[in-house]
Specification:
The structure is a homotetramer of 243-residue chains.
Chain A (H helix, E strand, L loop, with lengths): L1 E5 L2 H16 L5 E4 L7 H11 L8 E4 L2 E2 L10 H14 L6 E2 L9 H7 L5 E4 L22 E4 L4 H10 L10 E4 L2 H5 L4 E5 L5 H9 L17 E6 L12
Parallel strand pairs in A: 1-10, 2-3, 2-6, 3-5, 6-9, 9-10
Antiparallel strand pairs in A: 4-8, 7-8
Helix pairs in contact in A: 1-2, 2-3
Amino acid sequence: MRIIIEKDYEQMSKTVMDLLLAKMYTNKKMNIAITAGSTPKRLYELLVEEIKNKSDFTNVTYYNFDEIPFKKKGGYGVTMTNLKNMYFDPAGISMEHVHALDEKNYTTHDAYLESVGGLDAIFMGLGKDGHFCGNLPNTTKFGDLTSKVETSIFPRMYDIMKSEVGGNEEDIPDFYVTMGPRSVMNAKETIIFVSGKEKAGIVKEAFFGPVSENVPSSVFQLHPNFTLVLDADAASEIKDLID
Amino acid sequence: MRIIIEKDYEQMSKTVMDLLLAKMYTNKKMNIAITAGSTPKRLYELLVEEIKNKSDFTNVTYYNFDEIPFKKKGGYGVTMTNLKNMYFDPAGISMEHVHALDEKNYTTHDAYLESVGGLDAIFMGLGKDGHFCGNLPNTTKFGDLTSKVETSIFPRMYDIMKSEVGGNEEDIPDFYVTMGPRSVMNAKETIIFVSGKEKAGIVKEAFFGPVSENVPSSVFQLHPNFTLVLDADAASEIKDLID
Amino acid sequence: MRIIIEKDYEQMSKTVMDLLLAKMYTNKKMNIAITAGSTPKRLYELLVEEIKNKSDFTNVTYYNFDEIPFKKKGGYGVTMTNLKNMYFDPAGISMEHVHALDEKNYTTHDAYLESVGGLDAIFMGLGKDGHFCGNLPNTTKFGDLTSKVETSIFPRMYDIMKSEVGGNEEDIPDFYVTMGPRSVMNAKETIIFVSGKEKAGIVKEAFFGPVSENVPSSVFQLHPNFTLVLDADAASEIKDLID
Amino acid sequence: MRIIIEKDYEQMSKTVMDLLLAKMYTNKKMNIAITAGSTPKRLYELLVEEIKNKSDFTNVTYYNFDEIPFKKKGGYGVTMTNLKNMYFDPAGISMEHVHALDEKNYTTHDAYLESVGGLDAIFMGLGKDGHFCGNLPNTTKFGDLTSKVETSIFPRMYDIMKSEVGGNEEDIPDFYVTMGPRSVMNAKETIIFVSGKEKAGIVKEAFFGPVSENVPSSVFQLHPNFTLVLDADAASEIKDLID
């Protein structure tokens, strides 16, 4: 586990961009899974500015690692829509360099990844409950490959899904799909980046507490090439645990 | 997870030798941890024949991954003595190419490995109880680094230790040391090889059942570069699970 | 430059087999170009015995690096016919794991190799005149990519071609094709293996003399990952130059 | 050969910084040789701003690849002084992370590099005469390892040396030292970056003309992992040669 602590959200975003560019600039075919959501907002702004209209990165294929389909609306789901809006479209990245995981192809996703040589890197955020990708506590097991998770799995999930699809009840899907812990651990490199004081507690629990399915992200303590990038706030409870 | 099934113990040993030679022949510095015990007996016979008196492998440093000290006798412990007798001495490998983990240096073993760039590969056997290295059920947790395990941890351990030190009660140590699951998962490549019908059940349980601390080896389902080499007997209960 | 010296042809062949298996056993997609001719005869016998009917090597795609077409007879050329007879057929390797360079596709061969990620390794012999692949002195330049060489390029070439196609004048082609020095240098790893006293002189000249187009193989002094495997006879003139 | 063309010097410097950061951020020990001179001026300004006072890069060891000693003044030579002033000192990089090649240790430099696993990358400029490092036309041969070049080798060299040491004739050394073409080609990755219209001609000649010792940099056409970064001016004569 490598831990990089930056002074604030801006600098954390810049460093994650550097880690991502480090993959993109290797001159090798690269399969990279990236996260949607709010944490990477600044990351994608910086990245768009950096690579916009550059033709040098045809070696990169992008992947999402989870997807919430819009039940009624159809088309790209919540994650891919978000990635297109924040990153692919403004950066001028053609969708032919993107492989979309969705509710139709998830059962063959792991086999597909294996056929293309596996993920070289996966960039993820961390949930306040310790989740990564769509692996919330009590949804998946460490041994799970890419799976579906039913909206009915526990009561709170209905509200989460409702919020994710923008509040429209007709669009709440029966299930979402996510790469499971075992799928993600198969990636050659795993990166989690976290910002903010409200996540300082779970950072400590996930990466300095026991490895347990109750805190899904704790599994990365077991990954041979895992990097944790934090801003000072997110790192505020682990300062005494590292030198 | 890559699974290689060979027809018998002889051929399994030959294939593990090929995997080991594949590391040794890379022309890079290689840190390789290897197992003692009965399963690798034929492996080392073949390997000694292959590399005896060859000077081409100075790029390799060997490591043991657990050690049972002789309480009274002192000197090298059970594992290193076994490795010297089976492999290092007959192959003419100088101990300057071997880094011994022991009861004195185990607390700094993980930091040491990190300082030399980590293990490139670790070759292990599988216990009938699902253990790997010295990680028996109920001795270590997934999150443990290199640790000591007390002989008094549970009653059966006394008998195990007695047998390991050759039956001499005076030599039974107060504890043995082992790389923990987290330490082993840090290796770039992990390999387990298994022979014999009596292990067919645990092979199925460990690599096709749930990932659980009750079956320590199940953790390798989560390693991005894990190879399982079996003879036909050891593979007899998983035939219908693989194509 | 790594130099491995073995006591005789048998042991040299075994070591080259180990180097080849080291690539095959990496659990990654591997593009490997291999040599036809007389030097690898024992190599392929050993290898066939080792991997016959094993299904574990679907990660490997094989390539030839030069080809002499049969002008009248057509079909596979001299090199591919030879490789099929010595290795692919007896080892049970399907031609779907082989990419044949020939007189029709040579102009796009370098672009093709780039599209599949490049050659991971190329195993070659050494000619008494210092040639490698079809790069004889005065046929290609260091900067040449995959090229054709006219049979009329110099008088001796006619006899070489006649001998290569088995003596039948009607089958002597107008040109043969070969990966050029620049194409071969693009491979991630380059290996040359040499046997016999009659090549001891050129071994010294090529790898311990000046880098010069007059001795095409001298270019490998400039490759960052080059291995030279010799038997004692082939190494007899360089003993005082290495420690 | 990978070619990256940027619109101007600023953007070229930024891209070279990204390539350098890509190495630094790999989480592995990295041996990186870097260039002094005027071309990298902006590169180091950007880089200093980026990494100043960051403690995350202790995995990197820096190397110079040539050195011009001050005959009278002594101490660090021209290259290392320049690198210290432009990069190491303002970035807060301790000299314990720098390995200086100099006039005293050059005969063992290649052996030293081999002992530390070789250079992972070397970042170089290009001279108007096609030189790289201290390999000017008619000074070294392709097959040369790290060598000394006498100031008396040809008349113009005296003036070059005089200018390099700042005009003080007493400080003109009898010889300078440089990694030779063979030493540099041993690096796992080679990068040359070039700015300005006055170098557009030599860019074309070196990378699109014959491989020849008369244009030392042409040797990189033979390197399996070579990247050329140009600004639009430097690329102005090769536009029709690339797509």
